[in-house]
Write a structure and sequence with these properties.
The chain is mainly α and 423 residues long. It folds into two domains: 10-128, no CATH class; 169-412, no CATH class. The chain has helices at residues 2-26, 32-48, 65-76, 83-89, 101-109, 128-135, 140-164, 171-180, 183-186, 190-215, 219-233, 241-254, 259-292, 296-308, 319-330, 333-352, 366-381, 383-388, 390-393, 398-412; strands spanning 51-53, 62-64, 91-94, 116-119, 311-312, 315-316. The protein has a two-stranded antiparallel sheet. α1 runs parallel beside α11 and α7 runs parallel beside α10 (190-215).
Amino acid sequence: MKNFILKTLKIFISGLIIGILLMIGVYLIPTGRIVDNVEKSKEILKEEGHYNYIVSGDKTTMTDNYTDSIMLNEAMYHGDEGIIDKAMNVYEYYISNDVKPLDNLDGYFNNDPLLHPNSYTRYWHGYLIFVKPLLLFLNIAGIRQINAFLQLGLIVSISVLFVKKKKEKYLIPYLITIFMTTPMTVGMCLQYSSIFYIMNIALLTILLFDDKIRSKNDYNYFFLIVGMITSYFDFLTYPLATLGLPLILYFVYKNEKDIFNNIKDLIAKCFMWAFGYFGMWGSKLVIATILTGKDAFKEAFNHMNDRLSSEVQSFHFSRLDAVNKNLDLIINRPFIIVFLLGLIFIGYLFYKNRKDFNKNNLLKIVPFIIISIMPLVWIFMLSNHSYIHDFLEYRGLVIIVFAILCGLVLILGGENETKKKRK
């Protein structure tokens, strides 16, 4: 236990140091070309508006140009503050609370006299280590093209690995899950992309290195690192997906029916991810306060109280309203049709392997059921954020889809239990 705690702290502290150095490094990049490309990007985003439907009337295809404008604003900021101040507090050009992000960008390029620096200290904003270098060469249109290309390549690579690693039965559940994240929208939006990359790279890592990670009993550290990376890059979108989907694939590989061992294992992995995610977030507040003298906690906790509430600008709603609002987006006709096709595929697997069916294998589905409840709890707890941002938050519900389909494949698809007991 002592070695485990020491290694956990070593990984965590190393992550903090790397995160700080990366943020300082990215603020050493000159902003001249970045400003030029942000100006070109502004015109593209203004034409689309703060929220743009790729498919008219389908909220699951809504882009978040509102937040992307903030990210671009942060990327071009070149105020007189010190480099550590900028890296820790992350400033944008700002007019007032009543002015929207695209108008703030307009204000900068039109020399609005009310323009002033505004800090966004409560997040790490790790996405800037990619966005700022890209803006040296590309505007938002070019970044979207690169984004779509990389995300498609990632999906194809994972699909190939499912086949190569003899897990082809889980390829259909994976593709259905990805379809429900509306990847054509994700590729168009910086805001949505961070979690998409982290989630899929975590799956890719498991497919490539499961034997190695498991043999060294390093999965706890794996989920710790994934949680930390999620906190570092995410702008509060659908972060639980980086826990849920890799955790499901972990139990697919584990393939055991010992309920108590599985639940204990599930709790351990969730704890490590949560320690990485919330520990990284809390550490940012401590570090920013120490290094810059700014009270990062006041801003963060005021914001957190808002996100945990069930109220939006004096409008009260129940937490179940937030859950239902998100469920309505994932329970739409195209998604349901594709999900039913997945169930038909599983039915075919069951028919093909019906002689091998063992009702005792039903116990294997317990961790998948628990995992499928997690995104509902997340939405219930963060009801304010989930209610307002259902068009992005609903993507966390794909955990339920992946859990159901993978769990059914595991118990009905002819999978044999792992012969060698593995932790």
